[in-house]
Amino acid sequence: MDFVILDLEWNGTYSRRIKGFINEIIEFGAVKVSSETLTVRDTFDVFVRPQVGKKISGKISDLTNITNEDLEDGLQFMQVMSRFRKWMGDALLMTWGTSDILVLIENCRYFCGDEHIPFLKWYVDLQKYCEAHFSYDPGKQMGLSTAVELLKIDVEGMGHHRALDDSLLALECLRALYAREDLTPFIQDAAAQEFYDKIQFKTVIVCDLSHPLIKRSDMVFRCNQCGKRAHRDEKWLLKNKSYRAKFTCRHCGNRFLGRVQFKLKYDGMVVKKTVLPYEEEAKESTSDQAKDASRG
Length: 296
Ligand SMILES: [Zn+2]
Description:
Helices cover 33% and strands 28% of the residues. It is an alpha+beta fold. The chain folds into 2 domains: 2-199, Ribonuclease H-like superfamily/Ribonuclease H (Nucleotidyltransferase, domain 5, 2-Layer Sandwich); 204-291, no CATH class. The strands form 2 sheets. It has a 6-stranded mixed β-sheet. Strands 7, 8, 9, 10, 11 and 12 form a 6-stranded antiparallel β-sheet that branches. Residues 223, 225-226, 228, 249, 251-252, 254 line the site of zinc ion (ZN).
């Protein structure tokens, strides 16, 4: 099996048909490599002639150096899709982060009336794979340039921000880390509807303590010094989308601030509990007051 690393460029534009914005794909860039050695077999680089936004924005043009003239010579989205599908064959698809997949879904829905990506069978999110290697903070997302820096990849002579360039940069990241066995858990079956449900699921921060997935034990805090159950001194206060309250440990006298946040993800509720020093809150609220004051 080969791997294909795909990177897209798109232009945000208004569509009268859907009376809303769409991220219209303007370029496909991809590299196909052998899964054994990661040597390049072929590359794919095609412009897509826009059908919704006739002109690309100055920002996108500055960022990518793609001009309106380039795009006039491009192929229509459906033509590029069918060409790419033939070129890709049965390869496993990789992208850096899920936004390229989400934009592909959006374009397939808009132009074909079907959200399924015809060439997608097996998928790996390379960003997740790299983040796992660095034990990166799961709340943050590692940009491609950050990964390139962390992996000390020599970018001399390599371009950036054009689709093919970025797919080649992502390949360098994969090369720096690749071990066949540890890629296996990252391979997703993308032919199933579940893949689409999951990738399009939007995480919600729950700010309602009566939510059925919040358990009573989620609100219990243990003393960070002796481990015994601590006593909550006040009502929960909702602040910055998390709940907080002061706690006292009746066994050792320790006092602390307990903070809990609920994120509803596709796989269920993720509860993040943090114990903060007691004085932390005082500092935080003064700086918040200062911010409020400066806002007038
Ligand atoms: Zn204690």
